[in-house]
Every structure is written in structure tokens, then in C-alpha cells.
Design a protein that fits this description.
It is elongated and about 60 Å long. Strands 2-1-3-4-5 form a 5-stranded parallel β-sheet, sandwiched between helices. It has 2 domains: 123 residues, Response regulator (Rossmann fold), CATH 3.40.50; 95 residues, Orthogonal Bundle (Arc Repressor Mutant, subunit A), CATH 1.10.10.10. 41% of the residues lie in helices and 20% in strands. α2 packs parallel to α3. It is α/β, with parallel strands linked by helices. It contains 8 helices and 11 strands.
């Protein structure tokens, strides 16, 4: 997953629906990973590390409800937003879907435009930089649209990799990222980079953040990785 293009995991067993939704999501600028059943969805979940999951309730074998439950019980995907699609409009079904951990529930037949708006709304909450929202942490401000970073009002000079690293940290202050998670998020899983490269760029980021003074806001968590604050 790259920082520039959010990844949507689309889980839908009906081919026609899958094609229509894939087309519209890609037109909106998303990268789409497609699964036609629950088992495939859980494999792709681990491989693709999606930013959001659009999940059909009625799937063969493993139901959407069970897939959602597994997404929300795994520590590494617990915070990934899930939008549940269902032909079940009864309130009891909606409540059950939300109780399983779904972040939103859309009843079929639905408007594709409405679904796209809901995807963007969930992404805004989960990964604000992907929709151009400025990020703030203490005295640091990052603008993903203009690629400007300031600290206490003074502009910081950051390389593109350091900018992507800082964006990742500022979206989830306090969260500890492993080197593997940072490689996946910042460099992308298609590029082979040695995990020690992460340490080099973290060093550069620390230097850049303190170029006008101020304490180092990055924390090294021994045996685990790095965190902001």
C-alpha cells in the first residue's frame, strides 16, 4: 500500500456487482483488491493491508459477519474501517452488523454515489492525509496537499521518504509501527528494501524535525519499532 493511493479490499461474490464497484472505486482514485469469498478476503487482508474493507454480508461458506468479526479481533486490522453491504434491511440485521464491528452498513439496492461518499467518509476518519486533510501533532503541522511541514511555525525541509514516514506517524500518534509495517506503508510491498533502510530514514527524519530546535518527538520501542510521542 502506498501513501498516495488508498487500497480498498472489495469482498463481493456476485461478479457483476464486483465489476461495477471496482470500476467506480478505481475511477475515484482507489487501488482495489478483489475477493469473491470470505476465505479469499482473509488472505488478501494479510497480503494487502487495505485502508478500508467493503464487505458483502451474504457470502458462500464464510459469511461477511464472520469475516468482519475476524477483522475486528485481529490487532493488526482492528482499526481498519469496514462497510457492510446487505440486502437485509431489518433493524435487527443492521444492529447485528454494527455489533460485529462494522463501521457502516449500506442496504441493497444502494446508490453507487452514496457508497463512494461513505467510503471517503470512513477514510477521512481512518487515514485523513489520503483525502488532503492537514495533520497536527503538538507543534508540528503537516499539509499533504502542499507537502509542507512546519514546527512552531518554522518550515522544515524533508525528503519525500521522510515526508511519507512522518505522515504515517502523524495519522496514528502513539501507535508503534514495526519496520515491516513502515516498509509496507512508505515504500510499498512491491519494492524490495532492506529493513535497516528504515533506521537510516528514521535518523534523517529525527534530524529534520529538530533542525530549528525542539525535542525529538520520535520514540524507539526496543524490539518493536518506532512511534510518534
Amino acid at each position: 500500500m502506498s501513501l498516495g493511493q488508498p487500497t480498498v479490499l472489495l469482498v463481493e461474490d456476485e461478479l457483476a456487482q464486483r465489476e461495477v464497484l471496482s470500476y467506480n472505486l478505481e475511477a475515484e482514485g482507489f487501488r482495489v483488491a478483489r475477493a469473491e469469498n470470505g476465505e479469499e478476503a482473509l488472505i488478501l487482508l494479510a497480503e494487502e493491508n487495505p485502508d478500508i474493507v467493503v464487505l458483502d454480508w451474504m457470502l458462500p461458506n464464510l459469511s461477511g459477519i464472520e469475516v468482519c468479526r475476524q477483522i475486528k479481533t485481529r490487532p493488526e486490522t482492528r482499526n481498519t474501517p469496514v462497510i457492510m453491504l446487505s440486502a437485509r434491511s431489518e433493524e435487527v440485521d443492521r444492529v447485528r452488523g454494527l455489533e460485529t464491528g462494522a463501521d457502516d452498513y449500506v442496504v441493497k439496492p444502494y446508490s453507487v454515489l452514496e457508497l463512494m461518499a461513505r467510503v471517503r467518509a470512513q477514510l477521512r476518519r481512518a487515514r485523513p492525509s489520503s483525502v488532503g486533510i492537514s495533520l497536527e501533532y503538538e507543534d508540528i503541522t503537516l499539509d499533504p496537499e502542499t507537502h509542507r511541514v512546519t514546527r512552531s511555525g518554522a518550515e522544515l525541509k524533508l525528503g519525500p521518504t521522510e515526508f511519507r514516514l512522518l505522515t504515517t506517524f502523524m495519522e496514528k500518534p502513539g501507535r508503534v509501527f514495526t519496520r515491516e509495517q513502515l516498509l509496507d506503508r512508505v515504500w510499498g510491498r512491491d519494492i524490495y528494501v532492506d529493513s535497516r533502510t528504515v533506521d537510516v530514514h528514521i535518523g534523517r527524519l529525527r534530524k529534520a524535525l529538530s533542525q530549528h530546535g525542539g525535542a525529538d518527538p520520535l520514540r524507539t520501542v526496543r524490539g518493536a519499532g518506532y512511534a510518534l510521542g
